Amino acid sequence: xxxxxxxxxxxxxxxxxxxxxxxxxxxxxxxxxxxxxxxxxxxxxxxxxxxxxxxxxxxxxxxxxxxxxxxxxxxxxxxxxxxxxxxxxxxxxxxxxxxxxxxxxxxxxxxxxxxxxxxxxxxxxxxxxxxxxxxxxxxxxxxxxxxxxxxxxxxxxxxxxxxxxxxxxxxxxxxxxxxxxxxxxxxxxxxxxxxxxxxxxxxxxxxxxxxxxxxxxxxxxxxxxxxxxxxxxxxxxxxxxxxxxxxxxxxxxxxxx
Length: 257
Description:
The protein is an alpha+beta fold and 257 residues long. The protein folds into 2 domains: 3-218, Alpha-Beta Plaits, CATH 3.30.70; 227-257. The protein contains 8 helices and 9 strands. The strands form 4 sheets. It has a 3-stranded mixed sheet with strand order 8-1-9, with helices on one face. A hairpin with a 4-residue loop joins strand 2 (52-59) and strand 3 (64-71).
């Protein structure tokens, strides 16, 4: 059975323990400000940051409300990124993670265009770049271990188990606590379903979630567009060459006159 995670955002305190655990397990450096050298929270996911905690501030001036959200790859059940990859560098495994094979990647970056959650990042800063993203700690899952970020959480905001069981748990929490949660599990239907699912007391759109993702699997739709890119590039190159040839001919004719 595929593994899944239920993230209860009402229990997240923003400690960023999961973020540090992710960097530790993946041997990633901590981002620093350029001027002062102070440690900072990355402003977004990047090739050096696979998971991050960001906060949304709401409420009133006298009663502010802070909501914390964990960002990372949601590991779609039928990932558009994997279907768009022409060389099979990205693959959905039976246990849930969407993995990446470095030596297969040709750097086309179709996965970045296909992902509805904008997760895959490119190592623009390197001479030999790779695609980077959360791997759902696939090595740990293969060894029957809990992913590093989940094991570190001190409040139990994330629970890990069989994907169907996590979905059932989410539905039971909503039913048992009317008025506490938004009546929707984010990731249950989005993009045909994801391995990471969220509960929230605040509307997901207010927390920065993309709520316009259709409730259907996206590979066929994304590939229908991405497959046309080479043809479009070819047309542009041919048109450019023709324009250059015409311009060059006109210049030669002007010189002769």
